[in-house]
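Q: Hi! First time asking for a complex rather than a single chain. Here are the components, and I think there are two in total. Is that enough to go on?
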Amino acid sequence: MHAADAIDRSIGRTGSIACVGLDPRPSLIPPTLREQVIASHGAGAAGVAEAFRIANEAIIDVVAGRCAAVKPQTACYEAYGSAGWAALEATVTHARDAGIPVILDGKRGDIGSTAAHYGQMAFGGAPGLTDEPDDAVEGMGATWLTANPYLGVDGIVPMVEDTTAGLFVITKTSNPSSGELQDTPSGDGTVADTVADLVAEWGADRIGECGLSDIGAVVGATYPGHARSLRERMPDAFFLVPGYGAQGGTGADAVVGMRDDGRGVLVSSSRGITGAWQATGTDDWAGCARDALDAMNRDLEAARR
Amino acid sequence: MHAADAIDRSIGRTGSIACVGLDPRPSLIPPTLREQVIASHGAGAAGVAEAFRIANEAIIDVVAGRCAAVKPQTACYEAYGSAGWAALEATVTHARDAGIPVILDGKRGDIGSTAAHYGQMAFGGAPGLTDEPDDAVEGMGATWLTANPYLGVDGIVPMVEDTTAGLFVITKTSNPSSGELQDTPSGDGTVADTVADLVAEWGADRIGECGLSDIGAVVGATYPGHARSLRERMPDAFFLVPGYGAQGGTGADAVVGMRDDGRGVLVSSSRGITGAWQATGTDDWAGCARDALDAMNRDLEAARR
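A: Yes, that's all I need. Here is the structure of the assembled complex.
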């Protein structure tokens, strides 16, 4: 199935355009879980990784059926080495088992054959020591990977060659200094506009049944003015929209890039959901995450109308 | 010690401006090693990871003292999951133990606190489950990380905040489609020129004793015309130069960006060294790598004169 259809159907099934970011950090682990894990695994990398796995699995169990996708941020796991990487793998597996499409947020990009290896990391298919298909590696099993366009098409397309997997190409990001390079005048617009034109070109022959492409774009909610003009340049791209909530983007900002047919936008929130317990004085992190997601869904639903 | 000084001193000590790329793939593993590992670890991810570790350690042992740095490409390891990541960690540790500075080639970049986690991955310091400094994670122990500038300064600088670690920011890459975005007219030059100006700005207050900055630039050998003008925009940046050898760049192309004082260029080769055994009909991959590196050093030495 096309990666675009996997997300579009998940939106149809759950009625939600929300994506739950799984960006665990020790400061987001509730005290009771922290103490429990320190006792069994210590407070170092092995303990952190185990706490991430337990917390993520509990979050996934309560958000299943209530969100369109989950999005683990690779950096949070990589900081804890191979133990962290194993927790990332367990998280992705748990989400897949719960029927939730997974967007791996790694912002990868490199040249040719190296880019292909990043695709194998996210989607599987790395060769084993023989040419036997049975020895090929399963990989993470993600549905989408976020990608960085700076190297051009041969840093992007090899990641999804011969697959129906998806790439969200970072186009206009939500951070304060995103304009430093992205807003620089270029061609008939800005550098971000140039990337948008490339995204439309790269994705033109990868359109799913839903009418959207497997080559999508990251378009931050914190710059709603840009989202409108970027939609004109990328009529068939799925937009992954970060920056909602904690970073300041409102529900109305987040859905600016939606197509006239009501399709094509997925809104991401991380700390706003997984860190919701911190403001409550309780340790019920999973319940707080569910409530925060329900509130986000209501906010986005109101904004769509 | 400043990351720039670590490389500059390594160049002084070894007389080499070469960097050996450690980009292992099953096809680069010689048959005898492959069979030995299949017998002990199988042909899947665990076997591939073990073969990578053994091959890399043998290569490192013969190139130590003959090159300025080694550069593992993270994608090759990530494609094999947590087993691959553990092989990457073992490789970096072995290189450090051999006294060779390590450039981790991950081309990372993300916003704010996420970028900081990528820095922790490469250089250490991720917090444990308590605030005890003893619980903080050691990290990979690399000297430099390659970074992607597309998100702007807050996607770059948090990776090396409060450290003297180094970042090679990809500026003009060696691949065929690098011009798609990088050569687009922008400001008084191109997008790559805009990035070069940002690199110079970001690195201005991070100059080591050697007069070079810990914020360097990736400038491909396949576009020597660009290297000359990029050096004018980044007078104090270390250049990491890929594209020599297998990708078509000559020794003369590779050293175009060298400063008048003979400093500031590091030339990388991967397959040309670690895959040299394939053209010889022997299985002595480590000996062939040493000979290929010696030939590269002679070529670069001639080009510098």
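A: Chain A touches chain B through 75 residues (CB under 8 Å). Let me know if you'd like any chain examined more closely.
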